[in-house]
Write a sequence for this structure.
DNA sequence: ATTAAGATGTATATAAGATGTATCTTATAT
DNA sequence: ATATAAGATACATCTTATATACATCTTAAT
């Protein structure tokens, strides 16, 4: 059981932005910092902007910043809007479900409850919580331009 | 976020065995009932036997049965022992972790807490709970030989 | 001895996910 | 105005995890 790297990267982008004192960054800067594919990050950033988590600006001196204070961005919310699906078992996916047990099986409701518990925990935290020890993290960042 | 089909099938095998009044079944019977790959099921069954959830018998009139009463087989236990990993994010996998934030990031502990909550819910249920409406399920089964 | 069942190891196919390439659009500094 | 630095978008490809298939071995009942 794992989240996609897409979701992982989404969270990391938001954490990074929460870490920066000026809150402003470019995709290239992020890709270099985390040493991950810039091309992939482009899509992550684009999606985060579509979902309203960040604001982006094209053109010279463009970049991105959090759209709200870090304390107002819930981790559960990010995961829910980023993870492609929560088809814990086959029966969660209407277009792929072939299980003959159907509604007679109680596994589905158990797994659903577990999934909600998972997200419920994440709903108790925000990006601000993830960045709590800002001092240490800041030391990893490149200095001010 | 989803469990592997391997885990899904493992649960279905146990549910099926819990459903049958005599508690005895063969791989072929299971593969036909669920209309899934027999070859894949072979491995699922083998693993369930290794983990002590079922007893198997080779040879003529062989097959499998639950090793304990359905009420003593916890769903969480099955999922934990069947799902190949719980690497919720990259940083959970020691051999693949490249994230520069390392221990300075609090996302990991949040995600871990969420994962434990997920399994915690499943720990409250057993195979017996999954089979609760035995009457309905029994009607789906082939009649006594 | 034969047969029906599971055990085991290896190989292959499939699908999802991650990444790469190319091109387009927008903003702004000069 | 124009050049340039950024993000936006579409498409192609590579990689890997997962699922499935195949072949052979082992065991037990008849």
């Amino acid at each position: 059981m794992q989240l996609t790297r897409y979701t992982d990267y989404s969270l990391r982008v938001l954490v990074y932005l929460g870490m920066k004192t000026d809150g402003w960054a470019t995709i290239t800067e992020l890709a270099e910092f985390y040493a991950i594919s810039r091309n992939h990050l482009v899509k992550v950033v684009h999606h985060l902007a579509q979902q309203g988590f960040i604001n982006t600006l094209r053109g010279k001196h463009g970049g991105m910043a959090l759209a709200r204070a870090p304390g107002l961005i819930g981790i559960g919310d990010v995961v829910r809007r980023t993870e492609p699906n929560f088809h814990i078992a086959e029966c969660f996916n209407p277009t792929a479900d072939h299980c003959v047990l159907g509604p007679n099986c109680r596994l589905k409701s158990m797994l659903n409850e577990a999934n909600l518990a998972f997200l419920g925990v994440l709903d108790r935290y925000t990006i601000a919580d993830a960045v709590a020890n800002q001092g240490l993290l800041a030391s990893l960042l490149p200095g001010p331009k």
About this structure: Strands of chain A lie at 54-57, 63-66. Residues 4-6, 37-40, 57-62, 84 of chain A lie near DNA strand C (CB under 10 Å from a C1'). The radius of gyration of chain A is 18 Å.
